[in-house]
Design a protein that fits this description.
By secondary structure, the protein is of the alpha+beta class. The protein is 17% helix and 35% strand. Residues 70-77 have low confidence and may be disordered.
Length: 77
């Protein structure tokens, strides 16, 4: 498993939480950070497809360094 951070434009409401399973939501600076463990590329592809299907604007995505996981995520984007 690898912990990923996926950043989308806008501060998503709680109605989107169910769309992304176990990913944790954090908001800041007009963006939403989806953070969680992703098992493989197929799961990552599925999440990115869901982002597109919902019409969300993808800002960035990538694995988190273990040191970054405990840092303030809003400051690193």
């Amino acid at each position: 498993m690898t912990t990923y951070r996926i950043v989308v434009e806008g501060e998503l409401s709680d109605r989107f939480v169910a769309s992304f399973g176990d990913l944790r939501f954090e908001h800041g600076a007009g963006q939403t950070f989806l953070i969680g463990d992703i098992a493989d590329q197929a799961q990552l592809h599925g999440i990115l497809t869901r982002v597109a299907d919902l019409g969300l604007s993808l800002v960035s995505f990538g694995p988190l360094d273990p040191d970054d996981a405990s840092a303030d995520l809003r400051a690193s984007t």
